[in-house]
Design goal:
Helix content: 25-40%
Structural class: alpha+beta
Largest sheet: 7 strands, antiparallel
Order of helices and strands: EHHEEEEEEHH
Number of helices: 4
Length: 161
């Protein structure tokens, strides 16, 4: 049941949730430690290189997702808020939109929350776009599926720890 404090998906908001069978502190570590983050971030078939990771409110995170074909997709993130072990807010944008040709993905704000639940952690990603058109463009690019693939990789990584 949604409460007033729980955002609902609408024309500018996209929500992806996953319940992970791991304690909140461990799930938090998978996001807050660049070594662990590089092991699972991104959709199936992508690897990562974390180049900058100043994990704090006002910090920066630059990572490069690398496709199976070797294509590199650098993304720069401004970290808006870090509230351990409950919440991370960041805004992303491609470092060089030209690498996407005439269809660069829009920047948008992502809020990750980590809630301890029986048997694990409820991870919630809330993405807020500047316009409904930006959301539609990201959805057409496969963002929801890619995020779920990334969370699949996170689950697999957690199972090895």
């Amino acid at each position: 049941m949604l409460t007033a404090a729980t955002p609902a998906e609408d024309g500018r908001t996209l929500i992806v949730t996953r319940t992970l069978k791991a304690p909140r502190e461990l799930v938090w570590k998978m996001f807050s430690d660049p070594y662990h983050l590089a092991q699972w971030w991104g959709p199936k078939g992508f690897t990562n290189r974390v180049e900058t990771f100043a994990f704090r409110t006002g910090g920066k995170w630059l990572h490069v997702m690398i496709g199976q074909d070797g294509r590199e997709l650098p993304t720069d993130n401004d970290i808006v808020e870090v509230t351990p072990p409950r919440r991370i807010v960041f805004r992303n944008a491609p470092t060089d939109p030209r690498i996407f040709g005439d269809n660069p993905p829009p920047g948008f704000t992502k809020t990750l929350t980590f809630d301890a639940v029986e048997g694990g952690t409820l991870l919630k990603l809330v993405c807020v776009f500047d316009t409904p058109e930006h959301k539609d463009a990201v959805v057409r690019r496969g963002f929801r599926d890619g995020t779920n693939e990334s969370f699949d990789k996170l689950e697999a990584q957690l199972a090895t720890l």
